[in-house]
Design goal:
The complex is a heterodimer. By secondary structure, chain A is of the alpha/beta class. Chain A has helices at about 20-25, 70-75, 110-120, 140-145, 165-175, 190-200, 235-240, 250-255, 260-274; strands at about 5-10, 15-20, 35, 45-55, 60-65, 85-90, 100-105, 125-135, 150-155, 165, 180-185, 205-210, 225-230, 230-235, 240-245. Chain A folds into two domains: about 1-90, Translation factors (Elongation Factor Tu (Ef-tu), domain 3), CATH 2.40.30.10; about 100-255, Rossmann fold (3-Layer(aba) Sandwich), CATH 3.40.50.80. In chain A, helix 4 links the parallel strand 8 and strand 9 (about 150-155). Chain B has helices spanning about 5-10, 15-25, 25-30, 40-45, 60-70, 75-80, 85-95, 100-110, 115-120, 130-135, 145-155, 180-190, 210, 220-235, 250-255, 285-295, 320-330, 350-360, 430, 460-465, 470-490, and strands spanning about 170-175, 195-200, 235-240, 255-260, 280-285, 310-315, 335-340, 365, 370-375, 380-395, 400-405, 410-415, 415-420, 455-460. In chain B, strand 1 (about 170-175), helix 12 and strand 2 form a beta-alpha-beta unit. The longest helix of chain B is centred in the C-terminal third of the chain and has 22 residues, at about 470-490. Classes of the chains: A alpha/beta, B alpha/beta. The interface of A and B includes residues 89, 215, 225 and 232 of A.
């Protein structure tokens, strides 16, 4: 159970794992996530499902090394198994035919974006994807996104791939050029905040998928709470996607830093040990 | 005479019980004082998250306490027990030093005696109906301590009796969740001959017994031994499985499951919706206790972290609040304060928990209600504003309603706040079943037989009650097992 059947590093810190999980592969919908534990003493890590193969009974997850737990995850090899894997969790993305969809992905946020892009395309929409990262090697899943997009715009901070600039510049170019009916944005909080501000300016309904901190992921702990439209919501059961124009991104970013000091100490200790 | 009372009479008429009753005069029994539970010293126990506070009765203490029980012809204590333990029989077995038989008696109707002997509010259940209390106005027989004694004796003996099960009837049933209500249901259904699978969303079996109740009150290994008995009886356990998500109810029906018991518990933690409550360092008791109890965040060998505080405020007055504040003390808090809007006597926590907290140096700020939280530049809470209250007229719960005192606001320094003001039902299951009738609070509606609007689906525990105790949940599990058995036997005729 939960065996890793394929592993690939997209860049030094971003790893793709294909994991045996037949029930989840069958049940998952775009927007869903899983919670996994690497080993007996491990944390519960929430990760969005990037893809699934129902016939092979596998799911694909993509993780970025940001601390002890993701470091340990990235150290697993093909043939190793995750000690725990549960899902699918979270509400599925509301996918329907709206016309033209602008899909913006930043960094590893492109992973959860992939099944959503696929879903919107299959629902008959025109899909324009804007992928952004600091540099060329951090752009992931470009080919897969291309497969389900009518057009892909690549933006890098250093101009090493596609155009030089931020995701918002790529997105605004599209908005000014043609009618966009809906936008979906997934990436770092700051990127989602500014993309949301942009689409608000143009009055385009926008969904953002949040990567809040979680412990159980089933609605029990409340660690993932976020303010949406002035009300407290739980990302794990009410989300992970919310109306981006209603999200309090500043509070969300503040909450993501809630364990910064503790995590830093923990990570240093881990790196010194290993 | 009901079947139950006939059965109890028959058991009471056994020769050994009659002989034992005549061994001592009534006065010799009633003149004995109630035993005190031995405890670790407060100074020692606050240093260890995993050191059990109550250390359990010695054999000598248990024998004396068991001899207090009058073996009443009309054992009213059993009426107070949601799982209908044959209380006089197990106590009399202790008195005649047949400890294994005492444990066996417990396990006839209670799948988790070592758990219940520790966390049941016996003072509100069996002991509140004890002859000593109701007729003699004396302290009741310490039924809970004796239950724990018998269960622990068996666990320590290394030989666990495995209750007998009826021959398999070829029917499969499932539980959703693995907390006390589901385990109680599973224990009864396996005895009746069903194949039982317990599905649990988390990576550990036990529900609130594992993630909620701290080790200093209920050691995990005690729970594990009782789970092992269920395993040996044939109950299958599936962790990391969310019924309705990992596989749908329909898929499970196709796999042959004919009945479902939903004991998914009270999921969502409640917050007060006051300004600043989403600051860092303010967390639900569920999160705090899960990080420590389930994930072992108090131990460096585990990767999960937990925020530590010097000045910790816990909001609420229930058992969960006590568990949280005592955990905070053990994790090094200099000040660990209960902030509760009513007075101390209205606190819903067990008297024993409040006493233990008091001994451990927990501060009680009663008649105080948080109004707002303030944070430092990084967003970490550093201050809370509380308003002092006074008690007014009784409200619907019969307790006097707390009324704010104008101009009484005070600020206190805090760097960690645990909110323990209750929980709402877990929405995961109702969200998967559109035909399921739920109340406006999100609890599953059931009839007297614990049956929901979907006939094959029964429910109990906090998902029905909204927030109750381990033993009430276990009572629900037993009732649901009985009803589901009757139901499945009827529809298959």
């Amino acid at each position: 159970m939960n065996q890793i059947v394929e592993k690939e590093f997209f860049s030094e810190n971003v790893v793709k794992l294909v994991v045996e999980a037949p029930l989840i592969a069958k049940a998952r919908k775009p927007g869903n996530f899983v919670i996994l534990r690497v080993s007996e003493n491990g944390e519960r890590i929430p990760l969005t499902i990037a893809a699934a193969d129902e016939t092979k009974g596998t799911i694909t997850i993509i993780a970025q090394k940001v601390g002890v737990s993701t470091e340990k995850l990235a150290q697993l090899e093909v043939g190793d198994a995750l000690i725990d894997l549960v899902g699918p969790l979270g509400k599925e993305t509301d996918i329907h035919n709206v016309g033209t969809v602008l899909a913006c992905g930043g960094g590893v946020g492109v992973a959860p974006l992939l099944p959503i892009v696929e879903g919107f395309k299959k629902a008959g929409n025109r899909v324009i994807s804007v992928l952004a990262a600091r540099s060329k090697d951090l752009i992931i899943l470009e080919d897969e996104i291309r497969k389900w997009s009518d057009e892909v715009i690549i933006m890098t901070d250093d101009g090493s791939h596609g155009k030089k600039g931020l995701v918002t510049q790529g997105a605004e170019e599209v908005i000014l050029r043609e009618k966009v009916n809906e936008c979906i944005v997934i990436g770092p909080a700051i990127m989602m905040k500014f993309t949301s501000l942009l689409t608000k300016k143009y009055n385009i309904p926008t969904q953002a998928s949040l990567n809040s901190m979680m412990v159980d992921g089933t609605g029990m702990c409340g660690a993932c709470r976020v303010t949406v439209g002035g009300k407290t919501k739980f990302t794990c059961v009410d989300g992970p996607e919310f109306d981006a124009h209603q999200i309090d991104f500043d509070e969300m970013m503040m909450r993501l830093g809630g364990y910064k000091t503790e995590e830093k100490i923990d990570f240093e200790q881990f790196m010194n040990r290993s | 005479m009901t079947i139950q009372s006939e059965y109890l009479k028959e058991r009471r008429d056994q020769e050994w019980r009659a002989e034992l009753r005549n061994k001592l005069k009534g006065k010799e029994r009633t003149n004995l004082p109630r035993v005190h539970m031995p405890e670790e010293s407060p100074e020692e126990r606050v240093k260890h998250q995993n050191l059990e506070v109550n250390t359990g009765l010695s054999k000598e203490q248990a024998l004396v306490e068991a001899s207090r029980c009058m073996d009443c012809a009309n054992p009213t204590c059993i009426e107070g027990c949601p799982v209908q333990i044959n209380i006089p029989e197990f106590i009399k077995n202790i008195e005649r030093e047949e400890f294994a038989l005492a444990a066996k008696t417990l396990k006839q109707t209670n799948a988790l005696p070592a758990v219940c002997g520790r966390v049941c509010p016996q003072e509100k259940q069996c002991e509140s109906k004890c002859f000593y209390l109701t007729k003699l106005k004396k302290e009741p027989v310490a039924i809970g301590y004796l239950e724990r004694f018998a269960a622990d004796w068996e666990q320590n003996s290394g030989i666990m009796d495995i209750p007998e099960c009826a021959p398999k009837n070829g029917k499969k049933v499932a539980t959703v969740g693995s907390g006390p209500s589901s385990l109680s249901f599973a224990g009864d259904m396996i005895k009746l001959g069903y194949e039982v699978t317990v599905f649990e969303a988390l990576h550990e079996i036990g529900g609130v017994l594992k993630y909620g109740i701290p080790e200093f009150r209920l050691p995990n290994k005690k729970v594990d031994i009782e789970l092992d008995v269920l395993k040996k009886m044939g109950v299958k356990f599936e962790t990391n499985f969310i019924v309705g998500r990992t596989a749908s109810f329909d898929q499970l029906k196709e796999e042959g499951y004919e009945g479902f018991f939903v004991g998914s518990g009270a999921g969502l933690p409640r917050f007060m919706n006051i300004p600043g409550e989403n600051n860092n360092g303010i967390l639900s008791s569920n999160e705090y206790l899960t990080r420590v109890n389930l994930m072992g965040a108090n131990n460096d060998k585990n990767d999960t972290l937990v925020l530590k505080g010097k000045n910790v405020a816990v909001i609420g007055g229930g058992n969960t609040a006590m568990d949280s504040v005592r955990t905070a003390k053990r994790l090094g808090a200099e000040r660990a304060i209960i902030v509760y809007r009513r007075s101390r006597v209205e606190m819903p926590a067990r008297v024993e928990e409040v006493k233990h907290a008091d001994e451990e140096g927990i501060e009680f700020m009663n008649l105080a209600n948080p109004l707002e939280y303030f944070a430092d530049e990084a967003g970490r809470v550093n201050k809370m504003r509380v308003q002092m209250m006074e008690l007014g007229e009784p409200d619907s719960s019969g307790r006097r309603r707390p009324v704010p005192i104008e101009g009484s606001e005070t600020d206190i320094d805090v760097d960690l706040v645990i909110v323990a003001v209750g929980v709402s039902p877990n929405p995961l299951i109702p969200a998967c079943l559109p035909d399921l009738t739920v109340s406006r609070w999100g609890t599953i509606e059931v009839n007297d037989n614990m049956q929901s609007s979907i006939p094959v689906l029964f429910a109990g525990g906090d998902i029905v009650r909204g927030g109750a105790t381990v033993i009430l949940a276990m009572g629900d599990g037993r009732n649901a097992a009985k009803s589901m058995h009757e139901y499945l036997m009827t529809i298959n005729k």
